[in-house]
Amino acid sequence: MQDSENTNSEASEQTEEQVTEQAEDALDILDDATDPLAEAGQSEAEKIAALEAELKEAKAQVLYVKAEGENIRRRATDDIDKARKFALEKFSGELLAVKDSLDAALKIESADVASYKEGVELTDKQLNSVFEKFNIAEVNPLGEKLDPNFHQAIQMVEDEAETNTVISVLQKGYTLNNRVLRPALVTVAK
Asked: From 2, 22, 69, 102, which residue has the greatest number of CB atoms within 10 Å?
């Protein structure tokens, strides 16, 4: 038992000696590090003042970067709001010409059916050119196979046509840049 106590005391003495040596080494390193500064003629007050100046500058830079980030976020939000608000501006402007044509047709006092038909055909051409300009495509699937992505079957009817073939279009569908705005309402063969 005495042997274990001797071993423990020797180990603690060695540990204390090692800790003391490490502390002395650390102090030597600090002295070596501060000696060149002292030799350069910098007092502790000057060192503290220099460090405080650096800290102040770093804080100012952090505030600047933070403010700049906030400004960028605010500008992006404003741009998104404006884009949403005025996204339809060009399209709406083009539709005004169609509206003007319809208004002009309604103002005509004495007109026959033929002139009305001609006016409606011209207005339809105007509207189709607006649709073309903004990539709005008509979906008229008469005679095609039913495609549930673009067509909505309203009813199925016995017919000589192949099963699931569109035999009549009740209402044309439309796509905007190949995305369905409205599916075509169709009747399909059983």
From this structure: 102
Quick check: 137 and 173 in contact, CB under 8 A? Answer: no
If one counts every other C-beta atom within 10 angstroms of the C-beta of residue 139, the result is 20
Report the pLDDT value the prediction gives residue 28, as an integer from 0 to 100: 64
Domain count, the chain: 3
The residues near 77 (Cβ < 8 Å, ≥ 6 apart) are none
Residues 151 and 184 sit within 8 Å (Cβ to Cβ): yes
- Both 76 and 104 in one domain: the answer is no
Asked if 149 and 124 sit in the same domain, the reply is: no
Report in angstroms the alpha-carbon separations of 104 from 24, 70, 110, 120, 145: 101, 52, 13, 11, 41
CA dihedral 145, 146, 147, 149 (to 10 degrees): 160
Q: Report pLDDT digits (tens) over 145-167.
A: 999 999 999 999 998 889 899 99
Average pLDDT, the chain: 82
Q: Which helix (H) or strand (E) holds 189?
A: strand 184-189
Contact, 140 vs 185, CB < 8 A? no
Residues 6+ apart with CB under 8 A from 97: 126, 130
- DSSP secondary structure letter of residue 145: B
